[in-house]
Structures are given as structure tokens and as C-alpha cells.
Amino acid sequence: MADKLHFDLVSPERLLLSENVDMVTVPGKEGDFGVLAGHSPMMTTLRPGVINVDEAGKPQRRIFVRGGFAEVTPSGLTVLAEYTIPVEELDQAKLDLEIGYAEEDVAGAKSDDARLVAQEKLDHLKQMRLVL
Q: What one-character DSSP code corresponds to residue 92?
């Protein structure tokens, strides 16, 4: 039996996943990278994208993350994510509606700070939409 990778996915609220898997693909700031058991230690920031969790005999799990950090140690991979949602829970019609509202918020912002906050939300929603 091949070695398994221990993978922990943590959000600000709680531990979302903690299990042994075959491979995890992570959306790193410099590009996607795959992690298998025995991967060299490293740490990187995440960009918005999808984490793919692979385990033999099971369907691939896809989880959207907005950002955060990934750390590979001899004991496994830990992802500390700002925001997560399983890709299958994303709703195209709802996202399109929210993107429309966010575009209105950007256009109607009364200050630079409000515009930055609204633009960040809009960018986040568009990243989620790209996953679909």
C-alpha cells in the first residue's frame, strides 16, 4: 500500500477536513502544485482557486478557497484558508445575481475605501464564478 498524505483544511472557524489522502493539488500564489506523501517541506500563500483532493476509489473532491496559506511538513499538508466552499455548492444563478449587485456597489461607492471593499468582494465573486 502506498504512503498516504495527511491533509488538514482549516478555516478561521474550524477544522474542515483532517484525513489521509493520496494527493492534494493546491492553488499556490506562484501556480498550482501537487502534494504527495514525502513532499519537501515548504510554505506558500494561496490565490483564489480550487483545491483538488484525490483518493483512490473515490470521486475527486473540489473545494474553492479564496486565499490563505499552505504548509507542507514531514507530517503532511495543512491549508489555512480564508474562505472555503465545496465547488458543488456553488450556484451559478445566485453568483451571477451577487456579481450584479457587487458591480452596482463598486459603481455607487461614495469613498475610495468603500470602493476598495466593494471591488474586493466583486473580484472574489468573479473568481468563484470562474470555477463553474
A: H
Q: What is the pLDDT of residues 76-96, one digit of tens each?
A: 999 999 989 899 998 889 999
Outline where DSSP puts E strands in the chain.
5-10, 15-21, 23-28, 31-35, 42-46, 49-54, 61-65, 68-73, 76-81, 84-86
Residue 116 grid coordinates: 476598495
The 10 Å Cβ neighbour count of residue 127 is 18
> 75 and 17, same structural domain?
yes
Let me know whether 51 and 104 are in one domain. Answer: no
Could you tell me if 79 and 102 lie in one domain? no
pTM for the full predicted model? 0.81
Number of domains composing the chain: 2
